Structures are given as structure tokens and as C-alpha cells.
Amino acid sequence: MSEPRRDLRPGPEEHRLQGHWLLAKMGKRVLRPGGIEMTQRLLSAAAPSTTDRIVEFGPGVGRTAEHLLAVNPVSYTAVDPNPEGAPALAEVMAPYPQAQKVTADAAETGLEDGCADLVVGEAMLTMQSPAGKAAIVAEAARILAPGGRYLVHELGFHPDNLPAEVVKEVQKGLSRSIKVGARPLTEQEWRKLLESAGLEVEFVWTNAMALLEPKRMIQDEGLGGFLKFVKNMVTNPAGRKRVLGMRKVFRANREYLNAIGLVARKL
Ligand SMILES: C[S@@+](CC[C@H](N)C(=O)[O-])C[C@H]1O[C@@H](n2cnc3c(N)ncnc32)[C@H](O)[C@@H]1O
């Protein structure tokens, strides 16, 4: 007998949602491992400006779009194939006539060669297969104009020489808990991925993977946002169970995981 389709399985959707959409449903807006602190460090290095044409891969609910649009760039294009974050993103983009959304896979954006000065992608490469990662990075390199920057913020494995069995076990535990394939890379591997597409890494920064730790959540969501999340945890038992399960897996693997950000330039 064939397995029932995931999206048709009975029970509340909290049992099925991918981890990031579950967290968004519970009120979280920052859906990346290194938090706002890391995003800000990376944005300082990439220095978005009014003269930039910006493309963001996988914007989620538009929290980084807020920072990018506040700069008042020449243009901002969000590329995401999924509908879940679209309403919140549309609200963020609404005041900015230069903002548009393209519903497409970042591996095949349909955008012109050299049409961007800055490409931003956070927490969207880790979930791709090795071939998927390479295709997205190649697409970023293709749409960047010479001298353009690519900002990446993802999940890292450390140290660089982790035994293959540990890597496999951690990937398995993470993927099961967040219900999406999670394939973090070591710093060396992230660098190599970008360099293989002809990009030169100019800046690397790491942070603790503390996505669901209270201190980081207050930093990321503000006290009001954190309290809203806590209220949703109290009133939504199915959501609470999943979130606590995810946090347990993150904590159990914290010695092997970090958040890593890189800014690379197209020569
Ligand atoms: C974990 S969320 C991160 C959202 C946001 N970047 C953040 O850091 O808060 C992953 C995002 O990547 C998007 N995504 C997943 N696969 C993608 C792909 N192949 N191309 C473009 N976006 C993708 C998802 O729809 C979602 O918006």
C-alpha cells in the first residue's frame, strides 16, 4: 500500500509544517540560524546602498527585506517559489514601488545576466541537495554584475574534520525534526561552493546556532514579539510540542553546529 501524501495526513497542520513555516505560524519572523545580529554583521560587510539592484533568494516573511528596502535601493526583487511567506512579504514591500516578487526557484530565476549588484540568501541553501546548492550559487553568480556581492547566511558544521558518521547522524536528526532536508556544510565547504562558481570570499563570520534560545529570540523578535511567541506556545499545544522537539535536537547537536555567514564578490 502506498504512503498517504504528507499534506493529506490527518491531524493539525503543526504536525506536518516545515520547521520555518511552523515558527512563522507561531509568530517568529527571523527564520535563520545566526539571528539578526549575524544579518547585521553581514549587511555591514556587503554595504547595500541606494545605487544597488538587490535580489533576495528565499525571503521568508520579509524580515531582511525590511533592512534592504530601508536603504531605498534602485530595485529589490524577491525570488521564492513557495506561497507561505508571500502575504507578509507583500506587506513589507507595499510602500516601495521598486520592490517586486518573482515566483521561481532560485536555481532558475528567469532574471537577466548581470542584473544585480547584491544577492542575499539566508537559510535557504542548507535545505538543498549538493546539486541544488551548486545550481543556486551558479545562478547567483550569473545574475550578479562584475564587482557584485553575494551574501550567504546558513547553518554550519564545525570543526572542519567531523567524522562522516557524526555528520550523517546530525543531518538525519535535524531533517526529521524540521521536516525538511538539512545539509549544513563546514566553513571550508561553504567557501569552496562559492569559489567553484567564480566568486571570491571576502568576509566570513560565525555565530552560535541559538535560533530557539530565549536570549536570541528576544534579540531577534524584540520583547513584544517574544511574548507573542510564548503566548502562542501556551495556546497551541501541537505547535508547542513541535517547537520544543526542534529545540531539543538543536541543543543535543550544538557542539557540532553553528551559523555561518559569508560575503563573496564576483570578479
Ligand atoms: C528557513 S526560510 C528562511 C527565510 C528568510 N530568509 C529568513 O532567513 O528569515 C527558507 C526560505 O527559502 C525559501 N526557499 C526554499 N527553497 C527555495 C528555492 N529553491 N529557491 C528560492 N527560495 C527557496 C522558502 O520558501 C523560505 O522563504
Explain what you see:
- With 267 residues, the protein is of the alpha/beta class.
- The protein has a single domain, classed as 3-Layer(aba) Sandwich (Rossmann fold).
- 42% of the residues lie in helices and 21% in strands.
- Strands 1, 2, 3, 4, 5, 6, 7 and 8 form an eight-stranded mixed beta sheet that branches.
- Helix 6 packs antiparallel against helix 9 and helix 8 (214-235) packs antiparallel against helix 9.
- The protein starts with 18 loop residues before the first helix and ends with a strand.
- The model has no long low-confidence stretch (mean pLDDT 96).
- Bound molecules: S-adenosylmethionine.
- The site of S-adenosylmethionine has 20 residues, from loops.
Output the keywords.
globular, 21% strand, transferase, Thiol_S-MT, methyltransferase, SAM-dependent_MTases_sf, binds S-adenosylmethionine, 267 residues, methyltransferase activity, Rossmann fold, alpha/beta
Give the SSE string. Answer: HHEHEHEEHEHEHEHHE
**What is the CA–CA distance across the termini?**
54 Å
Hetero groups: S-adenosylmethionine
Could you please say which CATH topology applies here? Answer: Rossmann fold
Contiguous low-pLDDT stretches (5 residues minimum) are none
Helical stretch tally:
9
Residues in helix, %: 40-55%
Number of separate structural domains: 1
Taking all residues together, what is the mean pLDDT?
96
Return the structural class. alpha/beta
Largest sheet: 8 strands, mixed
If classified by CATH, what would the architecture be? 3-Layer(aba) Sandwich
CATH class: Alpha Beta
CATH superfamily: Vaccinia Virus protein VP39
Give the overall form.
globular
Instruction: Using the CA coordinates, give the radius of gyration.
Output: 18 Å
Pfam families: Methyltransf_23
Keywords: Methyltransferase, Transferase
InterPro entries: SAM-dependent_MTases_sf (IPR029063), Thiol_S-MT (IPR052356)
Protein name: SAM-dependent methyltransferase
